[in-house]
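Q: Structure for this?
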Amino acid sequence: MWWEALKIFGIGFPGVILTLGLMALIVYLVGVVVNSLQKKKG
Amino acid sequence: MGEILGEILLQTGIWHLEVKHLIMWGIAFAYIFLAIKKEYEPLLLLPIGFGILAVNLPLAPLMTQEPKGLLYIFYHYGLEWEVIPCLIFLGLGAMTDFGPVIANPKTLLLGAAAQLGVYVAFFIAILLGFTIPEACSIGIIGGADGPTTIYTTARLAPHLLGATAIAAYSYMSLVPIIQPPVMKLLTTKKERQIMMKQLRPVSKTERILFPIVMMLISCLLLPASAPLMVMFMLGNLFRESGVVKRLSDAAQNELMNIVTIFLGVSVGATMSADNFLRPQTLMIYGLGLVAFIFSTAGGVLFAKLMNLFLKEKINPLIGSAGVSAVPMSARVSQKLALEENPRNYLIMHAMGPNVAGVIGTLMAAGFFIAMVGK
């Protein structure tokens, strides 16, 4: 049981941070692309 | 004549009343009182309180499975089938402004770090003898997100639904009391005075792309989170597209209100005396508090860690807003910042981690369900 609990923590918590980190990176990149396209258009 | 009267008496609820029912009535009245008199989360506590009262009426066929009781039907199709939490998320999505997250995506990390309490409570729950699925359902209370707590518990430990839902909603309303001491303890006066640069404006295109991109990333990486995430982002797309105002309004108002009625009554209906009056329930309440404290600490400490690497420092008070409770925890950050500097308006900055916390809790729930779910 403890092994399973450690596995859930070891994968789960870093997993949440990495997933949201990846989301942050993609949201940032989308912002850069959209804004640069709009600047070109403008 | 006496025999007939005796038989009639046996068929009344009065004859079958026990002390445990009266205790539950007391709890029900306390909820109704808090909702009406103190206005603590009245939209939920009122139907929950009434649901508790109704389900603890002896012999009343409300939660019976055969024949199917009215409240059992609400519970079965609403919670066991996981329809209600998903519909609540549709409404929440339509009500949420993701602008602060889009303008400052770093705040998504604070929403993730504030899930620390979820995992701390998970471990302590196991230490106290709960099974792993039960510990996951208890831990997720730390996310301060009622519908996600209900969704996860309905999946992993449905017998704890009443206790976890009540703990989540109770602590959400206590955020202004629980968070400030932790935030003050972990920050210096100088840190609390940090002023942050105004957020950049966010274009409509970015706002429209955000729910689509977020849904794709989360559902591809963690399919277990899909039901809640899809509805959350669909609601937000209704709002941001600007072309379906009627749907957006319906999701935010009529649908949200209807679903809230069924949610409250169904959650209350799970709190029968036999289900609720156990030492386990007290432990769940205690663990919920632990989860909230560690989640607050996780967000604040991660903000301090980020400051070691950032050129433009962030005020660590916004880290605590990663505990989702929208918008209460963001307001708490704002209040503490204003106490240190009356010109330091942090609310928009704090809304970033606040809505990121909702996504963070969804991801934590997704990991639990993926790893433990039946």
